[in-house]
Design a protein that fits this description.
The complex is a heterotrimer. By secondary structure, chain A is α+β, with helices and mostly antiparallel strands. Helices cover 42% and strands 38% of the residues of chain A. In chain A, α1 packs antiparallel against α3. Chain A starts with a helix and ends with a helix. The model of chain B has no long low-confidence stretch (mean pLDDT 88). Chain B has helices at residues 43-50, 72-78, 94-104, 110-120, 136-148, 166-183, 194-200, 218-226, 237-245, 267-280, 295-307, and strands spanning 4-15, 18-24, 27-29, 32-36, 58-63, 66-67, 79-82, 154-158, 186-191, 203-208, 211-217, 229-234, 250-256, 259-264, 285-290. In chain B, the strands form three sheets. Chain B has a six-stranded mixed β-sheet, sandwiched between helices. In chain B, strands 1, 2, 3, 5 and 6 form a five-stranded antiparallel β-sheet that branches. Chain C has ten helices and no strands. The model of chain C has no long low-confidence stretch (mean pLDDT 87). The chains are: A alpha+beta, B alpha/beta, C mainly alpha. The A-C interface holds A 3, 8, 11-12, 15-16, 18-20, 22-28, 30, 32, 34, 36-37, 39, 49-54, 56, 108-110, 129, 131, 135, 138 and C 21-22, 24-26, 28-30, 32-33, 36-38, 40-48, 52, 55-56, 132-134.
């Protein structure tokens, strides 16, 4: 089978997609644990922290000395909250002091955690995050490349240019 | 010689302890020229020097009057070459390869020229086949095509028929003759397969141990080396040969059928004494004529003389 | 004009031959798999008292850029062994040198093709990696990374080229490049600070990029404070000067002294 340009481009696309898909495996294998050791919130105060994450699953484990409100914003939501106080988190709980929460982060973004103390006493808390699962956008990208690669390989193998040329000749003859 | 296109003077080249060329004085005029010598005599080294691939330790080498090392770029624009066991880009098709070579030679329409050359050497039908699938004969023809594609004035062929069967060799050399006749291309053919070369070349340079031992137009060399051999057709060759061996003017002789081949050192004595000897032993001489040597015989003669 | 056309012809020829199917495809596969899958870390999201920018940048530099330097050692060794050393052993170089091409154009075409393909390949993967870490395509990280990639890749290519030219055997040349650079790394690691980092093939590019980033983000990034201007200058000068010297030697040898028998 003659290797033409379309076929080669198709193979490149396919292999890029395949390598992205395979690359997602060791990346998902890392269960990253992030601990934020004992932190404190002043009375009626707020503490925030940020992290960058791909679209993965995360398990939050929170332990507080007193009940707090917790909000998780994406970058857009946090900007809106900062500017005008609009509360539009992707996850939240209110009046909680301890728990384990499973969140599926939707996209590759910087996320902001806001801890709000509603009491007249200093609250100390501990938060641990476990990141696991495949990076969904990487898998989607991988699939797009693989599928388009396969289409190009099939087209290349069929040698479409010769087919089109013959079709054009026949069309001209008919005219 | 005003028509010489290759000229070397006292060319010397050493590879480690090996003397490849030991004062080579080569002259090559226009036409189809043979460059013959035993293996390891310095033919390929000479060709490499002419192409600017190897720098001589001393001496001069010129092609078209241009210095081979300093002006190698200008020389190569006018020269095509087929090296022995040339390496080709095996993944390329024949057409693709020739197109690239044509572009390097700044040919105006490289694609058309490549197809034309493929037709000329009989490889048009396999133009899209990868070179790695070519037989030895096909590779040689492809090599000839790439040597000729740039419209060169001189084509150097280093052992062009080494891997070919006899019929392929003849076909190859016919192509060479054709190109010379129809396009005026000059050839320098380095080979040790002499019978076919004799049919095409007009000039021969003989190299041995890095030195030109003789060179000249083939007709002149034939006259020079044939003068010594006479064929005597006789009724009793063995008896006559025995008597002739005792004389001082026979260098060598051998018998084939009823003929004695005599290599003589003194033609006058031979012509004077032969009838006397024959009549003494009652042997009749049916025929006496000089033997015109083939190129192979000339070569053997020269090699033998120089080995002494 | 004719010589420019000749270089272009040689470049296209070199690209088509050296990156014939499936070499180019395998290189892409390995580069993406290694650099995206293994070299770059899905980051540790945050650590206390360190800014997010610090974390992201240090992860990128520590893993992606260093991983790139490591894998490019193999790629340059392989490609130049194939492009130059192999052509000597299979007599293709003799064929090239018998054509009317200037020797410097021939060597330049081989260097350019391999360098440009590798630069585009690694550059794309590193840019993609930076995007995966939340940086834009036109961010300073990407710009500085591409700059240090340019320098380090030229450095590695010049080493690979001269080794291939001198050894003229494909397999030996590949292994020689590997052992030479590995040996250099081992030797350099025994030097005292900061020379052990500045003269390192894998850490040199990181130092260059890190210093430029620190200068750009002045004050916002604290993790690279140990990288001084002296270290930056040492790394940069070492790589550029070695590149220039090796390239000069290669070209002079190839143009004026190389004999092909």
């Amino acid at each position: 089978m003659k290797i033409n340009v379309v076929l080669r481009v198709g193979v490149v696309f396919f292999l890029v997609g395949l390598s992205l898909g395979i690359a997602a495996i060791p990346r998902s294998d890392r269960q990253i644990t992030a601990g934020m050791t004992l932190h404190s919130i002043p009375p009626y105060g707020e503490v925030s922290s940020s992290f960058f994450s791909p679209p993965r699953d995360v398990r939050l484990e929170i332990e507080c000395s007193h009940p707090i409100n917790f909000y998780l914003f994406n970058s857009e939501g946090f900007e809106a909250y900062n500017e005008s106080g609009i509360l539009n988190p992707i996850f939240y709980f209110e009046n909680g002091s301890r728990g384990m929460y499973f969140i599926s982060l939707p996209k590759r973004d910087i996320y902001y955690m806001v801890f709000r103390n509603l009491l007249n006493t200093t609250v100390s808390f501990n938060i641990t995050m476990f990141f696991y699962g495949f990076e969904k956008d990487l898998l989607h990208m991988s699939m797009i490349f693989v599928v388009s690669g396969i289409v190009l390989i099939v087209l290349g193998a069929m040698d479409v240019s010769r087919f089109l040329l013959r079709f054009r000749k026949e069309l001209m003859e008919i005219r | 010689m005003s028509t010489r296109i290759v000229y070397t003077k006292d060319l010397f080249k050493l590879f480690g302890n090996v003397v490849a060329l030991d004062g080579l004085n080569l002259e090559v005029p226009k036409g189809i020229c043979g460059f013959i010598g035993p293996n390891g005599s310095g033919k390929t080294t000479t060709i490499n020097i002419l192409l600017g691939l190897v720098r001589p330790d001393s001496g001069e080498a010129y092609v078209f009057g241009l210095d081979c090392w300093r002006n190698s770029y200008e020389i190569k624009r006018r020269v095509g070459v087929l090296h022995e066991n040339l390496g080709y880009p095996m993944s390329f098709s024949a057409q693709r390869f020739l197109e690239y070579v044509a572009r390097i030679y700044n040919v105006d329409k490289p694609r058309e020229r490549a197809l034309e050359m493929l037709k000329l050497v009989g490889l048009y039908d396999v133009r899209d086949r990868a070179i790695k699938g070519f037989s030895a004969g096909m590779l040689q023809r492809l090599g000839l095509a790439q040597a000729l594609i740039g419209d060169p004035e001189l084509v150097i062929l280093d052992e062009p028929t080494a891997n070919l069967d006899p019929s392929a060799r003849l076909m190859f050399l016919e192509k060479v003759k054709e190109f010379h006749r129809d396009h005026g291309v000059n050839f320098l053919i380095s080979t040790h397969i002499l019978p076919e070369l004799e049919k095409v070349c007009s000039w021969v340079s003989i190299i041995m141990n890095g030195v030109i031992v003789d060179q000249g137009y083939l007709s002149d060399l034939v006259s020079k080396y044939s003068a010594n051999i006479y064929v005597v057709e006789t009724s009793d060759p063995r008896l006559l040969a025995k008597e002739l061996e005792k004389t001082g003017f026979i260098k060598d002789l051998w018998i084939e059928g009823d003929k004695i081949y005599c290599k003589i050192s003194d033609l006058d004595s031979f012509q004077r004494d032969l009838p006397v000897i024959a009549s003494k032993i009652n042997v009749s001489i049916k025929n006496l004529q000089p033997q015109y040597s083939s190129l192979e015989e000339i070569y053997r003669e020269v090699v033998k003389e120089n080995e002494k | 004009m004719k010589s420019k056309r000749n270089i272009l012809t040689l470049i296209l020829w070199e690209f088509e031959e050296n990156f014939s199917f499936p070499v180019f495809e395998i290189l892409i596969f390995v580069a993406v798999l290694f650099l995206i899958g293994f070299a770059s870390q899905s980051m540790c999201p945050y650590r206390t008292s360190i800014s997010l920018l610090d974390i992201v940048l240090s992860d990128y530099l520590e893993f992606s850029l260093t991983g790139c330097a490591f894998i490019s050692m193999f790629f340059t060794g392989f490609l130049f062994a194939r492009s130059i050393a192999r052509r000597f052993s299979n007599k293709e170089m003799k064929m090239f040198l018998s054509y009317p091409v200037k020797r410097r154009s021939l060597l330049l075409s081989k260097f350019l093709v391999n360098f440009i393909v590798l630069y585009l390949l690694f550059g794309s993967v590193l840019v993609f990696d930076a995007v995966l870490m939340g940086f834009g395509v036109f961010s300073p990280l990407v710009g500085f990374t591409l700059l240090s990639l340019l320098i380090s890749l030229m450095f590695l290519c010049s080493i690979s080229m001269i080794v291939a030219l001198l050894i003229k055997n494909e397999a030996l040349s590949f292994f020689a490049v590997f052992f030479l650079i590995y040996g250099l790394e081992q030797y350099v690691s025994g030097l005292k600070e900061p020379y052990n980092a500045c003269f390192s093939v894998s850490r040199g590019p990181t130092i260059i990029t890190a210093y430029l980033l620190r200068s750009y983000y002045s004050g916002k990034v604290s993790l690279f404070s140990y990288i001084t201007f002296k270290m930056f200058l040492l790394s940069l000068t070492f790589q550029i000067s070695v590149t220039i010297v090796l390239m000069l030697i290669s070209f002079v040898y190839f143009v004026y002294f190389l004999e092909v028998d």
